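Recap from last week: sequence in, structure out.
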Amino acid sequence: MVASVIYSSFAGNTGRIAKVIAKELGTEAIKVSQLPPEWAPTGLIVIGTSVYAGKPSRALIKWLYDSPSFRGKRAAVFVAAGDEEGQGKDVAKWVAQVLESKGAKVREAFVCKESLLWIFGLGQPSEKEIAGARKFAKKIAPRKRATVKKKIAKPKLKKKKTTPVAKKRKAVKRKPAKNKVKTSKKKK
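Predicted structure tokens:
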């Protein structure tokens, strides 16, 4: 698997955002509570949570502290928060710090707006948040490395310059030479 999208969601808004990101990355979103015990990080790891009283969900906090090392893995964070600039950024920063303390290299963080109507699941996520999630996914997507075929330069052979005299020589058909034997006649 190229990427793993792991999220924690209470009312479903973060889950819907996670599914949009996972679809763009060509994988599935997995809820933290549904992760198999034998799960091991591979490829890009994308972690998402909602903000609860200024903190990530308890399930995500527990999982982050209990999870195996992310040494050398690339990671990204997304947060759905009512306050994008304040609590949302703070939670994203905190999750990124925990991931980095476990050895991950956090590439990007995305914070989307979650209205107070999230409790009822009304109108969330909006088209703006979905578009933002797609843009975020494209930004963090592992890129396929283009194979560059190098053209091997063939040495250019220099053409011999032909002079007008050489052209005439080629044009004249040569006859094979006859052995001429000189005979000497004696005068009588």
